[in-house]
Amino acid sequence: MRIFKNGWFSRFAEREAISDEELKTAAADIENGRFDADLGGRVYKQRLARSGGGKSSGYRVIVFFKSGARTFFVYGFAKSDRDNISKAELRSLKAEAKDSFALTESHIEALLKSGTYKEIV
Length: 121
Description:
- The chain is of the alpha+beta class.
- The protein has one domain.
- The protein contains four helices and six strands.
- A six-stranded mixed β-sheet has the order 2-3-4-5-1-6, with helices on both faces.
- The radius of gyration is 14 Å and the shape is globular.
């Protein structure tokens, strides 16, 4: 499975000191059926613990996930900053997920080269 993060999420993860190892663990958890919410359309919400705290006071991340294929980390927020995403945001995320999974390998490579996505290895 290939795991990616978009530019916005990369900056969020860096600012909040969320490591690629934590993201790989979160992707593996989703693969193994341990996720917080399946929002439909291959969009998942997953909790990540904040350094020095637990998952309940940590972060919520939005992940596009297709088993055995690709995982995209696209959005995150601290639970203390907001409760959830809106219905309009969810509709937009579902459309974005559909587009993300329609990308060919050559499109993915171009997006990596341009810096739009970063691959977590």
